[in-house]
Amino acid sequence: MPDLSRREAIAAASLATLAATMPAFAQTSAAGAVAWDLSDLYPSDAAWDAARKQALADLPGFAKYKGTLGTSADALAKALSAQTALDRTISRIYTYASLKADADLRNSANQEKEALATDLYTAFGEATSWVAPELLTVGKAKIDRFIAANQTLKTHFDFQLADILRQEAHTLSPEGEVLLAGTSAPFSGPSDIREQLVASDIPWPSVTLSTGKTVRLDDQAYTLNRDAPVRADRKLVFDTFWAEYGRFQSSLGGAYLSHVKADIFAKKARKYPTSLAMALSGGNVPEAVYRSLVRETNAGLPQLHRYFELRRRLLKLPDMAYYDIYPPLVQLDRKVTVPEMRTTVIEALKPLGPEYGAIFADATAKKWMDPLPRPGKKSGAYMNPGAAFDVHPYLLLNLGENYEGMTTYAHEWGHAMHTLLANKNNVYEKTNYPIFLAEIASTCNEALLAAYMVEHAKTKAEKLFYLGQQLESIRGTFYRQAMFGEFELMVHDKAEAGEGLSGATLTKLYLDLLRRYHGPKVAISDMYGSEWAYIPHFYTSFYVYQYATSISAASYFARSILNGGAKERDTYLTVLKSGGSDYPVDILKRAGLDMASSTPYQAIVASFKDTLDQCEALMG
Question: Which member of 114, 177, 412, 568 is catalytic?
Answer without folding.
Answer: 412
